[in-house]
TrEMBL record:
The keyword Signal applies. It holds the Pfam family BON. The lineage of its organism: Bacteria, Pseudomonadati, Pseudomonadota, Alphaproteobacteria, Rhodobacterales. The keyword Plastid does not apply. InterPro entries: BON_dom (IPR007055), Lipoprotein_DolP (IPR051686), Transpt-assoc_nodulatn_dom_bac (IPR014004). This is BON domain-containing protein.
Amino acid sequence: MNSDHSVKTEVLAELAWDPMVKEDQIGVTVRDGLVTLMGHADSYWQKRAAETAAARVRGVRAIVEEIEVRLPVHVQRSDEEIAAAAVNRLDWDGAVPTGAVKVQVEDGVITLKGTVDHQYQRAAAAHAVQPLWGVRGVADQILIREAQRKRADAQQISDDIRKALNRGWFAADTVHVETKDGTVTLSGRAATLRDRTLAVSTAWAAPGTVAVENHIRIG
């Protein structure tokens, strides 16, 4: 198991390696594999980039993100301007169904609401608005349509997910899959936090998945 000191060293190195992150603005503490990121970022997407970079490091078990978004004056926008830009961005994103996602903005925080058929559509909507100027945060409240559940039974969903995991980075029986009423529960172990996230993405890709509960441990 990596020591907290070595994990901190590697996280700092990964932050410095990522060109999207201004590493001199980010502080790092580590305790029992729990990484806390603090400091500030010039934009919301830079804040997310720091979190993503830390998740790539082996030995990181979880991340507490305490980074404050401090927008430079020249990129600050009103809520009305942000909302208009977000709606336009979603309209031009081919992965987001037209008219399926509604936008609300308050104090620079975008809230996305609506219902879509697939997780990738929900993820695409959030990804589309994160880099917009003036954004301080994104709250994703988009739901997956319940009708998707009828496309496959629970056993079929679980079997399909296991096969997909085994095709990728995961050895057989390292991640356990159970499905009930369209909710997939993942347990077991993953080598890194990034692998854990990959397992969740794999579960969401299965037709019939409407929710994912992630109980995978790191290590």
